[in-house]
Automatic annotation (TrEMBL), chains A, B:
Residues 146-254 form the Styrene monooxygenase StyA putative substrate binding domain. This is Styrene monooxygenase StyA putative substrate binding domain-containing protein. Residues 407-430 are annotated as: Disordered. Gene3D superfamilies: 6.10.250.650, FAD/NAD(P)-binding domain (3.50.50.60).
Length: 430, 430
């Protein structure tokens, strides 16, 4: 029987392993860290799982957190101008609530699920030099985690590096002392030209807390936070975040209890930057065997639209379905078809994310968001399409597409908002 | 609202038009001929509709012939050696019976269905020079029929012409005076190096008759039929077919009533040859608009595996689904995604058909068929996969794939059959 080796036990590798296990396809998971090591580690991201990812979790029987998240439908979107004045606001409802969840807990739990169901796990780091031996042991090797030469095994796509450098400096962490916005949900707070701040209800150690993900455009209004490293000066870091809230996002500062505000634990903060990169979905080893790429190995997405974990999960299922449909020989023909199916999903997430990363924000994106402020249907669609990146990219891929969409949905001609014009949808809460 | 213009009212154009009509997308069908003109015309093909096509007909509410076909599950496959001796025989059951149906009746009926449901039909030939005007009238134009420059609008794929000339001369017609093989079903009769004869229960004028589709390899044992044109000498044509049955397919000759054997009507015969060709699924007009290709316009398949009509129907639904999913602007991005989905289906039908057309038959195909003769599971799978060309192509795309399949399904090592060795599955009827 077909045997699949999966290198890396992030959400992509785990969803694939659990999917194959559920369909009686022997799979071995090569995990660098044990569950205990993961739980003791640093915050890896502040991912949000959208509806389709939650449906996949349900299908895999790993939807352990449903009851703690089912009230998080609302997404507040605010645009700010100078001096923290909100210029536009809209609120959309997710048809299915997203879950912000700590991946130390999430991946540990799923790894234990896989083990408890009889799954085969091999611990320890796998290097690119180990792949030939793995490819002899398995019919197919899927690489879903790795660094350096492991990732570079997969050729960068010709259109896979739209920017030469990171477009945001990312600072994310779990905070005590900040209440969620009401009605409870996440908020997206945008300062054009300076960056974005995401406030997320977040399941982590000790229950529900708040994650603040700041996406900083160098040289903008949020730039100070870029240069303050938590591990070098925790007090100054927390003070800088609080000052940023007061100065740039005063509505959020109102939710802060200054007596306890700050990063929850030293491990609960992550600062860095990534350059969006898309790689080919498969590669050939020197021994002639083919290996597939999954998750961050094939697609590095800026977290600004929360597409990374969701794309990895979607692709894990696409790959699992491809394995069930045809598992005679994992040759180039197989890899090319599986890659095409994954890329069809990945491309929309990648292109849409990169479009929204541009400075200044492209005119059609501004137009769409401005319309959403006065049009609950457009707002609802934009918010829900975070779960269906192709749908938002279909609308934003060209000016003609955005115009066609807005014409059809009654947006009509749109004039840019003037300063201090706090537009809102009928459903919004200012 | 989106308006779609569909040029050509064969099975592909009709299935797309009916699909869009069912989903309230305005569609105009440009049909060269009226229903009455079609009914009076020449036999266009002797297509068989496999299970998935019948499911699509059911979804469209045009499954008018179910009751006349539900006993046609059996497919008899015979291989012949010298002097009409059968060397191998197997019988497979289609899970869903195929229907052989006269497309003069079929397309006329579906055209009337479309009209009766309020469909918009414009009669008359459409030339390539008419496309710019149509592209101004509709949001998307789909070209599903055409000749010459209309077809050449769509670029031939780099791998879209595997043979420089036709691999078979095709002679197909509807016959009186030949009974179906029992249990009732179709029979595939192969003479390696000379060609194939398909005996099909066929719904046509006056009810169920028998179609004989002969695929002639020039220079082989069936070559005489290639040079006899029915319209030049009907008596000699009928006599040549009968002589071919007696000489090369004596089991079939036993089913003939010589007193009435022959082509039913002068319009009920078709002789010709095609060179398998795959073209790109979309093209740009000089006015900048994009048009899509459907059916024979993008893929010309030899009928040896009965994939043409089924592929056109499958692609009509893929195109319809693509139109429902995204209909903001039918730009190059839209066309490329829709084409990729269609080509994923088309490629398997095309590659598998061309593989089976090769002379001599490739070793792995011989091995698979030889195994089917002694292995009912392999026989059943091979027969049913006519409805799922990707599945058979997955098995036949390389020797390694065929070996993996046969190893898994207990075929074991296979020795070529010796002359006169009339192998059969346990379920076969000799």
């Amino acid at each position: 029987m077909t045997s699949i080796g999966i290198v890396g036990a992030g959400i992509g590798g785990l969803h694939l392993a659990l999917y194959l296990q559920q369909h009686d396809v022997p799979a071995t998971l090569y995990a660098e860290l044990t569950s205990q090591q993961r739980l003791a580690g640093r915050l890896p991201n502040t991912a949000v799982h959208w509806g389709p990812t939650r449906e996949r979790e349900h299908a895999l029987g790993v939807n352990h957190w449903d009851e703690q998240a089912d009230d998080w439908c609302v997404r507040h979107v605010h645009f700010y101008g100078m001096f923290g004045a909100r210029t536009m606001t809209f609120t959309g409802m997710n048809d299915v609530p997203g879950i912000g969840i700590d991946h130390r807990i999430y991946t540990s739990t799923l790894l234990e699920d896989f083990l408890a169901r009889g799954g085969d796990v091999v611990y320890g780091a796998v290097m690119v030099g180990d792949l030939p031996a793995l490819s002899d042991r398995h019919d197919l090797v899927v690489v879903s985690a790795g660094r350096g030469s492991m990732v570079e095994l997969f050729e960068r796509r010709s259109d896979g590096r739209p920017f030469t450098e990171p477009q945001r400096f990312i600072c994310t962490g779990i905070f005590d002392g900040i209440a969620p916005q009401q009605p409870i949900g996440s908020s997206i707070n945008v300062i054009p030209g300076s960056g974005e701040l995401f406030q997320l209800p977040f399941l982590t150690f000790g229950g529900r807390k708040t994650a603040l993900l700041t996406e900083i455009i160098p040289g903008g209004q949020l730039d100070e936070l870029r240069t303050v490293r938590y591990e070098q000066d925790p007090v100054r870091f927390n003070a800088t975040v609080l000052r940023m809230l007061r100065t740039s996002f005063p509505h959020l500062a109102e939710l802060v209890d200054e007596n306890i505000f700050g990063i929850t634990r030293a491990e609960d903060v992550l600062q860095g930057a990534i350059t969006p990169t898309a790689r080919r979905g498969y590669a050939q080893l020197e021994n002639g065997k083919w290996v597939m790429a999954l998750g961050d190995v094939s697609l590095v997405n800026d977290p600004v639209l929360a597409q990374g974990a969701n794309t990895a999960s979607a692709c894990a299922f696409l790959l699992g379905e491809a394995i069930l449909a045809d598992n005679l020989v994992f040759d180039e023909m197989w890899c090319a078809r599986a890659e095409a199916r994954m890329w069809d999903y990945q491309r929309a997430a990648f292109e849409w994310t990169n479009h929204m990363l541009r400075t200044p924000l492209p005119g059609n994106a501004t137009k769409l968001i401005t319309t959403a402020c006065g049009n609950p249907e457009v707002a609802r669609s934009f918010i829900n399409n975070y779960a269906a990146p192709q749908a938002n990219w279909d609308i934003l891929a060209s000016d003609a597409r955005t115009d066609a969409y807005l014409t059809r949905h009654g947006g009509g001609p749109v004039t840019p908002p003037s300063a201090g014009d706090d537009r809102a949808t009928t459903a919004s809460t200012r």
